[in-house]
Amino acid sequence: MNIISLWISWFYFDMSRDYFSAFKNFLKFGINYFSTPLLLKSFFSPWKRFQSEYPRTFDIGGFLASLIFNLFSRFLGMIFRIIFILIGISFEILIFSFGIIFYICWIFLPVFLLVGIFYGFKFLLL
Amino acid sequence: MNFNLEKTKIFQAVSLEKQYLFNYDKSLKKIFCLLTLIFALLYIPALLYEIQSKDKLLGLLILSTTFWIFFVIKYNFFNLKIKKTELETPLVFALSHPDAYNLAEFLDFDTAKLFSNIISFCKKERFQEINTPAFLEVLIKNEHPLSEFLFNRLAIKEKIEKKLKDYFDNLRKEEFSRNLSPQFQEIILKAVNMALEKEKERIEVGELLLSAFKIDPFFEKILFEEDLRESDITDLVFLFETSQRKISESKKFWKYENLLKHGSIAKDWIAGYTFFLDQYSIDWSRSVKTWILKEIIGHEKAINQAERILSRTEINNVLIVGEPGTGRKSIIEALARKFFLGNTHPSLKYNRVVELDLISLFSQIQDPEEVELLLDRIFKEVVQAGNVVLVIDEFHNFIGQKEKRPGAIDISSVLGKYLHLPRFRIIAITNFTNLHITLEQYPSILTLFEKVEISEISRQETMKLLANSALILEQKYRIFVIWPTLREIINLTERYFPTIPFPKKALDLLDEVMVYVSNLKEIKLVLPEHIAKIVSEKTEIPVGEVEQKEKNILLNLENLIHQRIINQEEAVKEVSEALRRARAGLEVSKRPIGVFLFLGPTGVGKTETSKALTAIYFGKEEKMIRLDMSEFQRIGDIPRLLGKPGEEGLLTTKVKENPFSLILLDEIEKAHPNILNLFLQVFDEGWITDGQGRKIIFTHNIIIGTSNAGAEIIWEEIAQEKKVRIIKKDLLDYLLKNRVFRPEFINRFDAVVVFKPLDKENLLAICQLNLSKLKKNLEEKGIEFQITQPLKEKIVELSYKPEFGAREMKRVIQDKIENVLAKAILSDKLKRGDKVKIDPRDFSLIIEPR
């Protein structure tokens, strides 16, 4: 195999494989960093596990107070989770879009280099 | 063996490097990167201020960027593709048929390049065949990173260069045949085996170098002459390869493992707040985040065991039991790192490992009720948080404190409420003594824990750990540590700090020496001498010179003792020979340096010999620990000897404080037989457990027991002019028959030494010795004291009492000579510059002014 064909196979196959592997790592990292699946799984859980214990005797007032507090804690938790799930999803979309753009640039990089040389000299000789 | 480099793909890669100038790419990409930055910085103001030459600057910017990207791609193409040719056959097949496969195909790029250079070198030098010293020469000349690392660490680079020069100077020049020498072929086969053992696809320089040190006589000679072992080379190559791999892996930021180091921001939301816990704790997960080179060596089994216990749903509390300094905290660090990276059981992933700082809590809040209330809150937080593994160090200090003393608070009642909860996970740390003394008194607490026992790590593991720590400390202090220094740390700490376990003693010493050398402004290299100096300061023993000094002492022991001891030739000879026997080549023995029993009448020099031996062997007489064994006649005296909780032992504490000393057990026959039995283990194994449960080591002591039991036998047989050998036999028979000592006790001594009574001639010589000491003291005051024969005879005449030996003489000299001289000096009769002698008739002074 001559050096040109070796380069083509490396640039378009080997590097694409490695690129997508790194791309996958970044997407996975985004999910882990914002803990999206965990936030979805615990969507209705109380905020920071804040919970009021229900009274052990018959005490309707105490029961209602705990119920309202716990509902509020769950609601608060939900709000924060929604915010972070949205941030997480936006981050994933960003990484995905950036990754695709970068890959397209990579595919056309040899052309860009030739264009760069052409325009570089053109501007220099103006 | 089939080995033809030119017919391999990897050799083509080596040729391509030269052909397409790939080796310049690294520099070129840096240059164009810099140019791009410069042009970008120039272009921005040019654009803003509409400078005329802005188009030219743009052109330069575009061109430099284009070339920068071009060289980045070219550099990576070479390193990621060309250097890593594909193998058609796995290495394992090639090894089974070394003649069918070209083994050169399995070299990695660097090794193939090295071989190509070796061939060129041998051809240029007209060597008949490709030999192993040529391999070493090229390796050093090319400054290969492994050889630089290895030989600089071992501090042998210059010596090897000289050896190689001598070797090549004596090698005959002939026609180059391109054949590998038989030794080189053997080395390659061995390297293939090693590569397979390490599960590598290709043979690297490390394997070739290791094989050479194992097989080749030229390399073996280097090992021998530099006092190195194969394991030193193996460990260093391992250290180099692992640190290189870690550094290169840590640079690959796109790897998932490296991305994980950034942690996660929302995982804590699932967990509850730990407001009170955070105030009184240390978060281990934070400190292990940034590790690159650091690694945990040893204790893998204990780490896995602790991880398994913590991941259970029931009894998921760990009790780490081990002596301080064995690396108990390193297990916590390893667990924290695993949890942080998520390389663990799902229930432990991303859990925080938090050490509860009870000391700080107790120092801030004194009221026990308040403390209990706060602890209850903290433990509740741990349960509610659901992602905390709590650590309590020195656990025994906080369980069952019956004594009401400041800072001692029993947390068992409050802790007991939580231990059985599956979401409450705790790692408690204690040691064996306190496990038995304290914790076993609380079975209700102990049953909720599973024990993980930690033992001291081995010398080899400590060496790896030291090497790893040295790499980290070198970056911190900007000083270089050579390998022999690390070996010296292991040797000296093992020998001189026997009661502290590995790795603590070695790591502490390394840390100390780094601080010490970094303060010596001009020195940038840590040498074995620096270690010896610090150990000397700590132990008050001239370490370093000690081995050579000890050899000289042992060889001249008789002469040295006879400078102080008159007569007793046989006794001195026997002690000297026994010590030489005990020390020659048996340094690994854990027994004391020597154990002797001195028998003989009073005043014949038993104690004086012991003192002389102390001064000669340990540097000063103060290094003698003297015990009057007649004080230990009852079995109830054992605690006085060995100590008990709250009380130090007369023997054990002194030995612990002075591990390098001579122990003199005076009148040993008077001690209770059961007390003597305690010494059987000391004489045999070199250690004893004191009353406080500590192991006391006697490895660096000389132990001498003295006894005048059976002195009458010596008198009788001396009168019959019997030989010392016969007297000794009869004396031992007498001692055994009369049950003064038991046979197993006598047998434990390296030598039983009989001291003969002194005659008048001996006493005259002893008198001369004592008066000489006096003369020396007076000389320091500028007074010349003349010793006369009549004076000596008079002193001997006055002090000769055979049953007291030479002991009476000291009293006579004190009374008749020293008192008179003292009075004369105080009354100014005797002045500086005077000559003085003493009239033996009335002990009056005869002063001659100068």
Summarize the structure.
Helix content of chain A is 81%, strand content 0%. Chain A has four helices and no strands. By secondary structure, chain B is α/β, with parallel strands linked by helices.
Keywords:
heterodimer; A: about 130 residues; mainly alpha; about 0% strand; elongated; B: about 850 residues; alpha/beta; six-stranded mixed sheet; five-stranded parallel sheet; 40 helices; about 10% strand; globular
Report the span from N to C terminus of chain B: 93 Å
Strand-residue proportion of chain A: under 5%
Identify the overall geometry of chain B.
globular
Low-confidence stretches of chain B: none
Contiguous low-pLDDT stretches of chain A (5 residues minimum) are none
Largest sheet of chain B: 6 strands, mixed
Strands of chain A, total number: 0
Topology order of chain A in helix (H) and strand (E) letters = HHHH
Radius of gyration of chain B: 38 Å
State the helix count of chain A: 4
Identify the strand order in the major beta sheet of chain B: 3-5-6-7-4-8
Number of helices of chain B: 40
Radius of gyration of chain A, in angstroms, nearest whole number: 27 Å
What is the 3D shape of chain A? elongated
Major beta-sheet overview of chain A? none
Mean pLDDT of chain B: 89
Helix content of chain A: over 70%
Residue fraction in strands of chain B: 5-15%
